[in-house]
């Protein structure tokens, strides 16, 4: 176990594409909180670099509550060691850290993740997103687009290791409907005074990428500068999926949603939309 001065007081551990960046942006408006700008990925991919490397990310913090955000901690795996647990690493090194989880409709989260990987050139913008889901192409890649939505299994990893009082679970849909109240709830959980957060309507992770620009970037990366020029003048590419594909995902996640509702006693009504 490392000493508490070397580790964050709290961690935002997931889920991917569920509003964690917005939550961090809000917390950075609080003078009593310090969160590094970048995701550190210490407990999944950078653990071998050691605690001194990890703690170096927090050196500029004043007398503040220190936090970090790495959404891959919820549902992610450790490269070359898939049987080792990220949750166990955190429990061993940071047993007193508080953990915050933000969950989003697994269907909407999967679609958002798909678009994210199109923007980051891991998926061709010319691929049909509905076909990707309906033909279960997600089972043949390592992106975790559908895997990360199995919240009940991922959350259980932490529930088995941490006291309920150390784990705050938020829901994206409720958070976006009640932003100030959500931030007051987070402040109470962290033990810091609530403030009137000034930038609640800020859009985080807002990207303007056109389909033509994305196509150029994916197939001709040496022409990226040209692609950026098209992004300035063409509509943003944000692909939805067909009703058939959405229904497929809804059915795919039905067991997950039922199990999570049993675990937590609640899921937003929107999650059951078909």
How would you characterize this protein structure?
This protein has 274 residues and is of the alpha/beta class. The chain has one domain: 3-Layer(aba) Sandwich (Rossmann fold). It has helices at residues 20-27, 51-55, 86-93, 106-119, 129-134, 151-159, 172-177, 179-190, 211-219, 224-233, 243-252, 254-264; strands spanning 10-14, 33-34, 65-69, 98-103, 167-171. Strands 2-3-1-4-5 form a five-stranded parallel beta sheet, sandwiched between helices. α2 (51-55) links the parallel β2 and β3. α9 (211-219) runs antiparallel to α10. The termini are far apart.
Question: What would a concise description of this structure say?
Answer:
The protein is of the alpha/beta class and 274 residues long. 39% of the residues lie in helices and 8% in strands. A five-stranded parallel sheet has the order 2-3-1-4-5, sandwiched between helices.
Q: What tags apply to this protein structure?
A:
12 helices, Rossmann fold, alpha/beta, five-stranded parallel sheet, 274 residues, 39% helix, globular
């Amino acid at each position: 176990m490392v000493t508490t001065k070397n580790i964050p007081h709290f961690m935002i551990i997931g889920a991917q594409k569920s509003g964690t960046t917005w939550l961090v942006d809000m917390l950075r408006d609080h003078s009593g909180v310090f969160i590094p700008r970048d995701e550190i990925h210490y407990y999944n991919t950078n653990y071998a670099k050691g605690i001194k490397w990890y703690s170096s990310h927090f050196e500029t913090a004043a007398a503040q509550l220190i936090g970090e955000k790495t959404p891959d901690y919820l549902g992610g795996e450790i490269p070359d060691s898939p049987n080792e647990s990220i949750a166990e690493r955190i429990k061993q090194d940071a047993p007193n850290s508080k953990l915050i989880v933000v969950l989003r409709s697994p269907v909407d989260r999967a679609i958002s993740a798909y678009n994210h990987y199109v923007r980051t050139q891991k998926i061709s913008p010319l691929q049909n997103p509905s076909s990707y889901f309906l033909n279960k192409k997600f089972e043949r890649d390592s992106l975790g687009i559908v895997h990360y939505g199995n919240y009940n299994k991922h959350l259980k990893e932490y529930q088995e290791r941490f006291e309920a009082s150390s784990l705050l679970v938020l829901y994206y849909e409720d958070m976006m409907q009640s932003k100030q109240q959500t931030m007051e709830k987070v402040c109470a959980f962290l033990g810091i005074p609530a403030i009137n957060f000034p930038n609640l309507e800020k859009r985080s992770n807002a990207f303007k990428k056109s389909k033509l620009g994305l196509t150029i970037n994916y197939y001709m990366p040496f022409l990226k500068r040209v692609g950026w020029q098209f992004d300035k003048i063409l509509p943003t590419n944000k692909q939805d999926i067909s009703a058939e594909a959405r229904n497929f995902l809804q059915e795919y996640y039905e067991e997950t949603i039922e199990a999570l509702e049993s675990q937590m006693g609640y899921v937003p009504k929107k999650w059951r939309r078909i």
